[in-house]
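User: I'm putting together a teaching handout on how sequence relates to shape, and I'd like one worked example. Could you take RNase III domain-containing protein from Rhizophagus irregularis, show the sequence you're using, and then write out its predicted structure as tokens right after it?

Assistant: Happy to. First the sequence, then the structure tokens directly below it.
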Amino acid sequence: MLSRTFYSRIILKHSLTDFARQLHAKQTVRNITKPATIKTTHVKDKHDDFCQKYDLIFSDSNLIHQVCTHKSFKLNNASTNERLDFLGQKVIQLYAAEHFIDKVPPEKLKYQLKLYTIDLDKLGNIGINLGLNELLYWTPINEAEVIKAKDEGQEIRPSGEVSVAGKALRALVGAIYHDKGAFAAKNFIYKYILPAEKTDI
């Protein structure tokens, strides 16, 4: 009899394959790599440093800019990270399921998958720890207060930063999967997103 792990992996991989096929069929790949001309040299250097730090050399340098561009960003020609976010969520779901399938009882598996795919507080704090919040393009709900505080030499946290960083982290995984393949995405997820424990990948 085939194991529960085998069936779970087949179902999840089939779902991810179907989604990837639809993504290409709708020619969304072309949209994913559409240049977003929104950079200053200083910010571009930050993106370059981030990619070098985590060994993320994309075939299109604009991809990391799109990863960091939230839909709230007020620039009409900027490609946002929504599609990459959606793809990344599915990829994380696959490998989180693979990781936890034999580690937690069935009744807790759903919770663990939700924690690492939907819980933006969890994902956002991981993203902030990686430094993604320093690279984001977005418009905080309390933007006026943030600007005023900065002008006065003070600092307040932009409202929604954790959530936006969580979406950017999922988008980053989507970009890695799209540009560098499943193995690279899996390695990144196991190394930086899932709990730090010795696991054969």
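A couple of points you could highlight for students: Residues 4-193 form a domain with the Ribonuclease iii, N-terminal Endonuclease Domain; Chain A fold (CATH 1.10.1520.10). The CA atoms of residues 2 and 147 lie 59 Å apart.
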